[in-house]
Each structure stands twice: as structure tokens, then as C-alpha cells.
Amino acid sequence: MEGKLYPEQNREHVLHLLSRCEDFLALPSPVQVILGVTSGRSTSSTTLASLIQNDPVIASGIIAIANSPYYGFSKKIHRISHAVSLLGFEEIRNLVLSMAVVQLFDHRGFGSPDRIWRHSCAVGVATRMVAGFFKVKIESKFFLAGLLHDIGKVFLSQYLPDKYTEMLAILEREGGGITYHVLEEAFFGISHAQIGKMLMEFWNFPEGVVHAVQCHHAPSNAVTDAFLASCVHIADLICIVKGISPLGDRYFLAVDKKVVPLLTGLKENFCTEDLFSLLSQLDLEIDRQSGFVSAFRR
Ligand SMILES: [Fe+2]
Ligand SMILES: [Fe+2]
Known about the structure:
The chain is mainly α. The chain has 2 domains: 26-103, no CATH class; 106-294, Hypothetical protein af1432, CATH 1.10.3210.10. The chain contains 18 helices and no strands. It is globular and about 60 Å long. One fe (ii) ion is lined by residues 119, 123, 149-150, 236, 246.
């Protein structure tokens, strides 16, 4: 590789920005109030519902989510109070938090406009689909972990756009001589997965979601909820194979082979046929979940 990369300097710069993220990545106060209420045990559903009701954007998002096929409720939900009682405080908390986080970033990422968000939403939907395949209880964490798995890349592209463009130019110049992930570490001295972990901790996401973001390229390393991290990993692979990638190509992505014993524990003989089946369902699933996804992309 030509030229010097200065990873120590770049890493220091990234860490400095992260240490200041309170200044530019703090959640709006109405959202903070809702999050505070959902974590307290003494609040009633009525109080939570009226706080959500006060914010028309959050309220319409919650109604759209509750009526989407994501959860598969049989009856139409018109009232926030009904959505709160059906979903529960924890789900509401995770949904409100994630909707707010997505709004903190502008969606004109690196490369082609909003390619990263298209990839992120597709991975969110695919993560839920993979979890459904293993017949586990469907919760919001599947979509959210998939949606935010590459948030570290979004951060780099938005807050260090010149450096990020420089790194992508090197990747282009190397023409396959180096993988994206190897170059990212060599250039920034830190991976987007590590950056993602720090951001998710800053926003107080549940531990399992933090670990899924941190370990989405090596899910067997996830200390908490390795199944969730594995679902994100497989979803990421499926989307890349489908060509729904952040860089618009089928860039090299290593498979963590240690996920296999974990998944075969849930479904005997998990095999390539199952991967093909998941791959072929993805387009339909993205279509089916469009109402859910649009609550996050306004
Ligand atoms: Fe990634
Ligand atoms: Fe990804």
C-alpha cells in the first residue's frame, strides 16, 4: 500500500470526537423524558401514553410500528395507550430511543446518497427475518440491532468526511488488494464496530444490543445475547450477497464459523438450503416491513 496512514493520529481524533459526543449526539429532551419514564417502575401506562401523545412524530411512529406486520397483532391499533399496553415499557423505550438516534444523523452518507441507510434498514429487516426463522419471540431488538450495526461507519462518514473519503479512495486504488475492514483498522486505528459499541453505550442501549453492534462481524465473541449478534451477522451477509451493501458492491466479508454450533442448537441441520431460503425471502420481507421501517426514516 502506498503512502503513510497515520492510524495513531486518526484514532486519537476519533476518540476525541467520541468523548465530546454529548455536544452533538445528545437526544432531544422530550425523548429523554420518555426514556426516563420508561426506566422508572413507578410510572403508569397512562402517563407514558400521554407523554408520547404530546410528540406527534413519536406518536405516529409508534402507531405505525404497532400496526405493522413486525409484531403481527391481529387487530388495528388506533390509540397510543393501546400500543403501550400491547408492546410494554421496554419495547416502547427501545423503539423511541432508536427512532431518535436515527434522526440525529443526516442521511446523506458517504458514497452514493443514503446507501448506508438502505443497507442498515435492510439488515434490520433481515435480522428480524433470521430471528423469525429460528422461531424465537420477536422483539424490537432484532430490527434495532440490525438497523444500527454499522452506526460506526455512519459516524465516521458524517463527522470525519474528509478522512473517510480519503480511506475509500485508497480502497478504490488498491482494487481488491486489501479488504475494507483491514484498511479501516489500518487507517483509523479503530474499527466501526468498536466505535458503534461506544456510541450505543453513550445512548444507553440494552447490553445485548450493544454487544450485537460491537460483535456483528464476530458474533461468537458477544458476551451477552450471542444469538442476537449471530442474527445480525447472518443478516449482514445476506444483504451483502444480495448487493445491498454500504459501498454498493459485494465487498469481502468473513463468516464467523463459530455461529454454526449456536444456530444448529436452535435448528438441527441448519444448512445452505436455509440460507438460500432466507435470501430468496428478503425482497418480500423488505416490502412487508416497509411500514415499520418508515417510522424510522422520516
Ligand atoms: Fe459492519
Ligand atoms: Fe453492514
